[in-house]
Every structure is written in structure tokens, then in C-alpha cells.
User: Which sequence fits this backbone?
């Protein structure tokens, strides 16, 4: 952002003959433009944030035992890293999963009920 101090420095350089008036005008215009354009943008540029959600529910009580929400950006990195440590997984399957997540696929991915342990595991993308 152009502050009074920055503009005064440019004017002082013009006064001292270090730069021409034309160069000073360009610098002042650039400083004014930097005020209009934010230097840092936070969050996603378009659309809403997407989440990878894992929920484990106790069948007897109906209460959630585990409820984990992970940003999709982190999941994409995790898939790439996980593929290196899981040689028994087919790389084509991992690529297909990563591509489906990147394309914006949403909904339930896994819904498993384990009667022995009395748990239900749900994995979905929102």
C-alpha cells in the first residue's frame, strides 16, 4: 500500500534529480495501483471449501465415536504421499481416486457396518 512516506520518498528523489519527473510519475502510479490490488489472497478463489469427512458411529448407542473433517487440499497431498508407502495398492486406482476428488465428486464414498465391533464407518466428501 502506498503510504505518505513512500510518496514523499519518490517526490524527494525527483527534487534531488535522482529520477526524472516522468519516472517519478510512473512510480507514483505504481504505488497507487498497489493500493488497489491486494498482495495476498486468502481462502479459495472460487466456490466453497470442500471437506473429506470420516464418521465412526457406535451402533448400540447411535453416538459418534469419531468425527474427522479434513480439507480436500490436504487429502490430495495425503493421497500422493500415501501412494509411496502403500506399494500393494494399484497406482492406477490411486490416480483414479485422486482424479475423482479433483473433479469435484461429492457424496458418500464408503459406508461399512461392522457387526462384530458394533460400528458403522462412513466416508464422504462435501
Assistant:
Amino acid at each position: 500500500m502506498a503510504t505518505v512516506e513512500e510518496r514523499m520518498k519518490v517526490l524527494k528523489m525527483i527534487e534531488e534529480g535522482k529520477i526524472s519527473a516522468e519516472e517519478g510519475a510512473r512510480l507514483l502510479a505504481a504505488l497507487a495501483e498497489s493500493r488497489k490490488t491486494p498482495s495476498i489472497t486468502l481462502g479459495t478463489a472460487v466456490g466453497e471449501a470442500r471437506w473429506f469427512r470420516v464418521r465412526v458411529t457406535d451402533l448400540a448407542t447411535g453416538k459418534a465415536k469419531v468425527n474427522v473433517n479434513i480439507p480436500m487440499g490436504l487429502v490430495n497431498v495425503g493421497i500422493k504421499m500415501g501412494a509411496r508407502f502403500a506399494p500393494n495398492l494399484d497406482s492406477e486406482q490411486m490416480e483414479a481416486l485422486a482424479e475423482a476428488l479433483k473433479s469435484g465428486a461429492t457424496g458418500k464414498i464408503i459406508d461399512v457396518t461392522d457387526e462384530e465391533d458394533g460400528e458403522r464407518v462412513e466416508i464422504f466428501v462435501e
Summary: The longest strand covers residues 51-58. The chain has four helices and four strands.
